[in-house]
UniProtKB/TrEMBL annotation:
InterPro entries: Growth_fac_rcpt_cys_sf (IPR009030), Tyr-kin_ephrin_A/B_rcpt-like (IPR011641). Residues 59-102, 196-234 form the Tyrosine-protein kinase ephrin type A/B receptor-like domain. It comes from Cryptomonas curvata. Gene3D superfamilies: Tumor Necrosis Factor Receptor, subunit A, domain 2. The lineage of its organism: Eukaryota, Cryptophyceae, Cryptomonadales, Cryptomonadaceae, Cryptomonas. Coiled coil: none annotated. This is Tyrosine-protein kinase ephrin type A/B receptor-like domain-containing protein. It comes from the Eukaryota.
């Protein structure tokens, strides 16, 4: 009479006995006679043989935990389940059979390179990433390209910020820190290919961080400084002097008195009425008597 082994046991004909399946093997044929132990499937492992006194206890292969995988048969220990690469996971699934079952986590991207392992990379601040090569720029009009990662001392290819739209400058000291940043107070970027914000020129100012350009000082004022951050940096012309409707003036010389007055040379910053016996052409010092010819 032939004896059949139970589930989890291997039948040895030569010795007419059933033995426990060894590590990395199982016998799970519940509906038919279990004749031979088979290796644990990919994504599974078995790292022990149980015995309770003289009775063998059935044990099947166990699935590899989440965030691990096993791409070969017959794993005899849990360490045979390989960890997913950095910034990737199995999204809670167990028993995974391939590294491709490890997907990049949220807030990352992955640029596939045929024949190479493609790492999951943290999304730069200037992009919205979707765990693959699909990305969207945070600032519309910013230009990104796929370039070698050696600029950031990284292997493989990465998304690199090339330039920004008007009103922004490129920040790219680190890979994750890449973004288009609005120009701060006192600075502007008027180019359609924004790379670096530049100081407001003389005669102008900008009070807040924004994409706006620097503003010209009002008429009857002037500003001799660059990178001005306040309207108050625009100095008023001397009393009764005017810029004759012009804005954005860069020096005190742009302020002139009328033809009936002149600017006090001593430094009181006032327009003094021209003497009756003289004329003051364009607000300059008086010209007396025969020295004046029209």
């Amino acid at each position: 009479m032939e004896t059949q082994a139970g589930t989890g046991l291997d039948m040895i004909h030569a010795n007419q006995q059933c033995i426990q399946c060894q590590k990395g093997y199982e016998c799970t044929q519940a509906s038919v006679p279990c004749i031979e132990c088979t290796p644990c499937d990919r994504g599974f492992y078995k790292d022990s043989e149980f015995e309770n006194g003289t009775e063998w206890i059935e044990e099947s292969c166990m699935p590899c935990p989440e965030n691990t995988y096993r791409d070969q048969f017959g794993a005899s220990e849990r360490a045979g389940c390989l960890l997913c690469p950095v910034l990737s996971s199995t999204s809670g699934a167990v028993g995974q059979k391939s590294k491709t079952d490890c997907r990049c986590t949220r807030g990352t991207y992955q640029i596939q390179v045929p024949g190479n392992d493609s790492p999951c990379l943290l999304c730069p601040r200037g992009l919205i990433c979707f765990q693959n090569e699909t990305v969207l720029p945070v600032v519309e009009g910013s230009k990104w390209d796929i370039l070698p990662g050696n600029f950031f001392r990284m292997e493989g290819n990465v998304f690199s910020l090339i330039h920004c739209p008007t009103g922004y400058e490129v920040l790219n000291l680190t890979h994750e820190g890449q973004e288009c940043s609005e120009c701060t107070a006192g600075y502007e970027c008027t180019s359609s290919i924004g790379l670096k914000c530049t100081p407001c020129s003389v005669g102008k100012y900008k009070e807040y961080k924004s994409t706006e350009s620097c503003r010209a000082c009002d008429e009857d004022t002037y500003n001799i400084n660059i990178s001005s951050t306040s309207r108050s940096d625009c100095t008023s012309c001397p009393k009764d002097a005017t810029t004759k409707g012009k804005i954005g003036q860069t020096s005190k010389s742009a302020c002139s008195c009328s033809n009936t007055s002149y600017l006090d040379p001593i430094g009181t910053n006032q327009c003094i009425p021209c003497p009756k016996s003289a004329v003051c052409i364009k607000g300059q010092l008086p010209i007396f008597g025969e020295r004046y010819t029209a």
